[in-house]
Amino acid sequence: MALTGLEIFKLLPKTNCKKCGMPTCLAFAMQLAQKRAKLEDCPDVSQEARQALAAAAAPPMRKVTFGSGDRQVTLGQETVLFRHEEKFYSSTVVAVTVSDKLTGQNLKNRIDTVNSLQFERVGTHIKVNAVAVINDSGDPAAFASTAEMVKKSSNLALILVSDSPDAIAAAVDKTKDAVPLLAAATDNTAQPMAKIAAEFNCPLVAKAESIEALADLTEKIKSLGVADIVLCLHAETLRDKLYNLTRLRVLSLKKIFRPLGYPTISFVTDGNPGHQVAVATSLICKYSGIVVLDTAEPYVFLPLLTAKMNIFSDPQKPVQVEPKVYPIGEPNENSPLMFTTNFSLTYYTVQSDVEASRVPSYILVVDTEGLSVLTAYSGDKLNEKTVADAMAKNNVDKLVKHRKLIIPGYVAVMSGKLEEATNWEIMVGPRECSMLPKYLKEFWK
Ligand code: SF4
After folding, report:
1. If you placed Cys at 409, which of 137, 191, 423, 431 could pair as Cys (CB 3.0 to 4.6 Å)?
2. CA neighbor of 325 nearest in space, from 336, 339, 335, 344
3. 5-57: in CATH 3.40.190.10
4. What is the model's pLDDT at position 317?
5. How far is CA 391 from each of CA 47, 153, 342, 364, 426, rounded to the nearest angstrom?
6. Pocket-testing residue among 8, 14, 22, 26, ligand 1, by greatest number of atoms within 8 A of Cβ
7. What's the pLDDT score for residue 57?
8. Predicted pLDDT at 1
9. Residue 378's pLDDT is what?
10. What is the DSSP letter of 320?
11. What are the b/e assignments for 220-240, b being 16+ CB within 10 Å?
């Protein structure tokens, strides 16, 4: 938990020497508490105080990554129980199982299916993030071979799931450059599993039957040289799973209980696909860092990933599309050009109405930091200058040979200034974009 200014002040030299640029130690402590100053700016702070402040500043939930390069995923580093308090930092990693009993074409088909679980939604690419290779065979060689095949055939992060240290050692040896997550160490296997994780620098799942046993296990694993840990607490029912995940989150964030200050993993591998998506979605809401599903049915993943996208969007940041020119249909130099803002909902509504008109067109999307037309205009994020700049930046004069720009009817008031700023003829479009098909047919010649 972050220290208050007064708590920091107690750890400072209290000489008011001003070497830090502040008039007093108290002023410096207040700046430090607000993260407007760095501890290094005080040359006289003692080593003990430095350590105490560094420990207090450590995030309550550790950041853990696995996978390498483009396949790397991040877990943890959360600071709040509820999204509206700030935001959630690490979106739940969604993983799908691949059994090491599969071979040949069946194995290839399963990997291809998992790879294909990706969709486009309001301009955002949403997809499954990881493959969990399951050691169903009990055979280390089969497990290693399947893991190697998955690594070669998929760009997703890798989770190796086996209770056997021998199987984990064999598989990680074949996949070490992919930095897999190793699952899982129990109290009985903590020593050999931690040895493998430390040797290959991979994060390790700690699995236990009770919260107390889990806390003891993470301390044991940490003492064996593994810092990046993911928690797996056993529960039979959805109710118990949610209860456990909530307790872990509260102990981690509110009580700053370091032995449980790690992200979590949940396995949802029983029941039909509909049951799995219901359970997994509930666990994404509260507060699983990773969910592993057995099903690979696309109809399950579209709603699951949509729910995840909504939960992990930043409440202070509207969903946005990239500001640029979007061609609708196959426009040419005589096609209409109109603008709207980069608020996703606004853009996709306009896009759909322009498509419905069947008039090939260009839509220039102006960057208004994700605000809708009227809000952006009221907040001066949309004015003649921002539109003229967007036109220049996107070279719209090279796209069309006419010099006419259709603007949303709601901002008709800016037409005069925009005409002066651009030297283009400004055509005031309808207030509601649902009227665009009629407008284009009647007014665009
Ligand atoms: Fe206090 Fe350190 Fe700043 Fe001097 S440099 S005023 S001791 S905080």
Report:
1. 431
2. 339
3. no
4. 75
5. 57, 43, 14, 8, 13
6. 22
7. 67
8. 53
9. 93
10. B
11. bbbebebebbbbbbeeeeeee
Are the C-beta atoms of 21 and 45 separated by less than 8 Å? no
pTM of the model: 0.75
Region 325-443: CATH code: 3.40.50.11600
**Is ligand 1 within 6 A of the CB of residue 50?**
no
| Residue 343 DSSP class | B
Average pLDDT by stretches of 10, the chain with 445 residues? 80 94 92 81 90 76 95 92 84 98 97 95 87 98 98 97 98 97 98 98 98 97 97 96 96 91 96 95 96 95 93 81 94 96 92 94 95 93 96 96 96 95 96 93 85
How far, in Å, from the CA of 48 to the mean position of ligand 1? 16
Is the CB–ligand 1 distance for residue 44 below 6 Å?
Answer: yes
CA of 17 to the centre of ligand 1 (A): 5
- CB-based contact 286:246 (threshold 8 Å): yes
Alpha-helical segments (H) within 224-372: 238-253, 273-285, 298-311, 344-357
Q: Do domains 5-57 and 325-443 have the same CATH topology?
A: no
CA distances from 296 to 26, 150, 311 (A): 58, 15, 22
- Residue owning the nearest CA to atom 2 of ligand 1: 42
Burial 89-100 (b: 16+ CB within 10 A, else e): bbbbbbbbbbbb
* Cβ of 329 less than 6 Å from ligand 1: no
Nearest CA to ligand 1 atom 3: 20
pLDDT value for 212: 96
Q: Write the single-letter amino acid at 431.
A: R
Is 38 close to ligand 1, i.e. is its CB under 6 Å away?
A: no
Architecture category of domain 64-312 in CATH: Alpha-Beta Barrel (3.20)
Q: Is the peptide bond before 184 cis (omega within 30 degrees of 0)?
A: yes
pLDDT of residue 2: 63
Enumerate the domain spans of the chain.
Answer: 5-57, 64-312, 325-443
Residue 128 contacts residue 91 (beta carbons within 8 Å): no
Mutate-to-test residue for ligand 1 from 9, 11, 14, 20, highest number of ligand atoms within 8 A of CB: 20
N-terminal to C-terminal alpha carbon distance within the chain: 64
Asked if 268 and 59 touch (Cβ cutoff 8 Å), the reply is no
The ligand 1 atom at the shortest distance from the C-alpha of residue 29 is: 8
